[in-house]
């Protein structure tokens, strides 16, 4: 039996309501699953305070009830090594200074093995963004190392998230089924199949609400049925957020439709019931927001509640009462909450923060007479992935192997900085690192077409993923202030292309107003702008740009004139709600944003942060 077939014994997979797949299933399902061998290592996970679907109402075990364990996590983002800084800590006490180091797949794998000990019926699932926006160790190899890591730690099923589409949906399908990319053996600092082969995911990706417009078929299966044996079967429906197309590069999802999450899941309920599956869990890459500055166990079992505007709340409230549990993600937040279903019954909704710092353990009873989950038995807790347990040997070997392969790329010093360059924005929305990146994009000559040179560059704040830290040395011979390619890549990990285009002055005003209106009205997205471009904006009255304040090198922008501008392909396609970029004329694709950033560092070393005087917020 092959490695891939062995994992899927006892797990049936299927597509959308018509059951036709746009991509083939990985293996034919076996009629029943053999129970997983239980680990014998004692658990050492740090428990959260208990949360239940209805506290105090857990049913006593009886011959008709079978124990089932569901382990879940979300938003790993290819963090194989223990994440550093705030990304590698989790708040464990009432104050924000009470934190613990957490995360790293060597420790996550051990915690999961220990959690499975003594559980005959266990399944491990995830809620998307396993890959994408990943550290260089994974991204340099098109996230193949993360897929191999997830295979090793025993992931069974995951929903797709928006970042699974970072390199396009056909690349996502390749991660599922395997195979290599002919990428020039390291061109653009990426190298598929450095060991000669890539077998793909043993686990099943689910994409119930992602449909090819031309065929009406899902790009991956809609659901998977986990057969534990002895008649115990649970169906898992997997989805990404319906707004995915607005937050990924348009070319990567061209021809796809992202359907409503509630409608999609509710239509699949009768499909699963027709197969004799009454126990249903939704894995969804959409989430909620707990109160800030609170410990990981606070919401909802420690007294906190999700913010009323959390996108997951209306989704959970409208999902069919036949759905027993929701595993969520996307917001990178920790919570284990009860949200009533349409019939008023409590239903567990969980999320395990991000980067592998937490996992959720849910235990429940499966009623073999009703062939369904006993809803009142469902108990969930978030568990910290501490770093005091032994490292998993297989994960250590995988990390060391790819570290050796990536070191020549990662350790190259590009230049020096004189102090930390941070991405935190001031009140006006300007940041030192955003300014630096915008300047780098304006300086890149790959976007010059027919002698037309851009006069301003725009950068989205969500694409700036980390700070440049002065005192951060990882490789032998690296000095304080040195910036390596790995550090630069961590700041800009998406491999977006730079795009130049013509915009009228009015369209530039439209871009700036879209920072605080429409899709960005509730949460403003202030773009970084290059040196020489200045403007003022206000939150008072009608939010937006102060008319007449926009200038280039001190000269007011003429709304009827045409200007050459530069940005990345994500914004060019209207990402993050900036539709005005879509109307640009004479678009021309240049090089990669990371190459522009690296070149700028080399040409402007040592670099010091510039004054934050480009954007002004007025009363």
Task: State the name of the first-level CATH class of the largest domain.
Answer: Alpha Beta
Give average pLDDT, whole number: 89
The poorly predicted ranges are 1-11, 15-62
Largest beta sheet, briefly?
A: 8 strands, mixed
Question: What is the fold named in CATH at topology level of the largest domain?
Answer: Purple Acid Phosphatase, chain A, domain 2
Compute the separation of the termini in Å: 69 Å
DSSP strand count? 31
Count of the domains: 2
State the share of residues found in helices, binned by percent.
Answer: 10-25%
Q: Determine the number of helices (DSSP H or I, runs of at least 4 residues).
A: 13
Please tell me the CATH architecture of the largest domain by its name: 4-Layer Sandwich
Q: What proportion of the residues form beta strands (DSSP E)? A: 15-25%
Q: What is the CA-based Rg, rounded?
A: 25 Å
Shape: globular
The CATH homologous superfamily name of the largest domain equals: Metallo-dependent phosphatases
Derived from helix and strand composition plus strand pairing, the structural class reads alpha/beta
Signal peptide: 1-27
Organism: Terracoccus luteus
Region (Disordered): 77-96
Pfam families: 5_nucleotid_C (PF02872), Metallophos (PF00149)
């Amino acid at each position: 039996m092959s490695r891939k077939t062995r994992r899927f014994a006892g797990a049936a997979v299927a597509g959308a309501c018509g059951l036709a797949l746009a991509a083939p299933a990985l293996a034919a399902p076996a009629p029943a699953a053999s129970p997983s061998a239980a680990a014998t290592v004692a658990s050492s996970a740090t428990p959260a305070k208990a949360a239940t679907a209805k506290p105090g109402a857990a049913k006593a075990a009886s011959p008709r009830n079978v124990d089932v364990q569901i382990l879940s996590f979300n938003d790993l983002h290819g963090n194989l090594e223990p994440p550093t800084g705030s990304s590698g800590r989790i708040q464990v006490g009432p104050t924000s200074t009470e934190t613990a180091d957490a995360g790293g797949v060597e420790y996550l794998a051990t915690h999961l093995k220990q959690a499975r000990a003594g559980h005959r019926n266990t399944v491990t699932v995830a809620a998307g963004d396993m890959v994408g926006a990943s550290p260089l160790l994974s991204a340099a190899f098109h996230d193949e190392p993360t897929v191999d890591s997830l295979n090793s730690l025993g992931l069974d099923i995951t929903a797709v998230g928006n970042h699974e589409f970072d390199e396009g949906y056909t690349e996502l399908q390749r991660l599922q089924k395997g195979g290599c990319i002919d990428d020039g053996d390291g061109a653009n600092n990426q190298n598929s199949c450095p060991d000669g082969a890539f077998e793909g995911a043993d686990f099943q990706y689910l994409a119930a609400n992602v449909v090819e417009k031309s065929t009406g078929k899902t790009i991956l299966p809609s659901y998977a049925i986990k057969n534990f044996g002895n008649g115990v079967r649970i169906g898992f429906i997997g989805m990404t957020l319906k707004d995915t197309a607005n937050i990924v590069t348009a070319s990567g999802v061209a021809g796809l439709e992202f359907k409503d999450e509630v409608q999609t899941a509710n239509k699949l309920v009768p499909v699963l019931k027709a197969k004799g599956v009454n126990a249903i869990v939704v894995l969804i890459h959409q989430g909620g927001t707990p109160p800030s500055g609170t410990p990981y166990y606070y919401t909802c079992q420690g007294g906190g509640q999700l913010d009323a505007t959390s996108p997951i709340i209306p989704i959970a409230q409208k999902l069919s009462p036949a759905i027993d549990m929701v595993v969520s993600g996307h917001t990178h937040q920790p919570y284990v909450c009860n949200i009533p279903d349409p019939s008023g019954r409590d239903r567990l909704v969980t999320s395990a923060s991000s980067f592998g710092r937490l996992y959720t353990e849910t235990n429940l009873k499966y009623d073999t007479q009703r062939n369904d989950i006993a809803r009142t038995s469902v108990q969930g807790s978030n568990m910290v992935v501490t770093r005091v347990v032994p490292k998993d040997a297989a994960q250590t070997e995988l990390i060391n192997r790819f570290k050796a392969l990536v070191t020549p790329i990662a350790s190259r010093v590009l230049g020096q900085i004189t102090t930390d360059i941070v991405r935190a924005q001031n009140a006006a929305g300007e940041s030192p690192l955003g300014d630096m990146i915008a300047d780098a994009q304006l300086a890149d000559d790959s976007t010059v077409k027919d002698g037309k040179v851009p006069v301003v560059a725009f950068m989205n704040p969500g694409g700036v993923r980390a700070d440049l830290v002065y005192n951060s040395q990882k490789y032998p011979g690296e000095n304080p202030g040195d910036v390596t390619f790995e550090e630069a890549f961590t700041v800009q990990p998406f491999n977006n292309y730079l795009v130049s285009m013509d915009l009228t002055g009015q369209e530039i005003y439209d871009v700036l107003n879209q920072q605080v209106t429409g899709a960005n009205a509730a949460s403003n997205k202030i773009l970084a702008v290059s040196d020489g471009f200045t403007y003022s904006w206000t939150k008072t009255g009608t939010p937006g740009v102060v008319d007449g304040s926009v200038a280039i090198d001190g000269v007011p922008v003429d709304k009827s004139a045409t200007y050459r501008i530069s940005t990345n392909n994500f914004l060019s396609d209207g990402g993050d709600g900036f539709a005005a970029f879509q109307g640009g004329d004479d678009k021309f694709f240049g090089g990669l944003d990371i190459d522009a950033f690296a070149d700028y560092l080399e040409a402007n070393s040592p670099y010091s942060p510039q004054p934050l005087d480009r954007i002004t917020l007025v009363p």
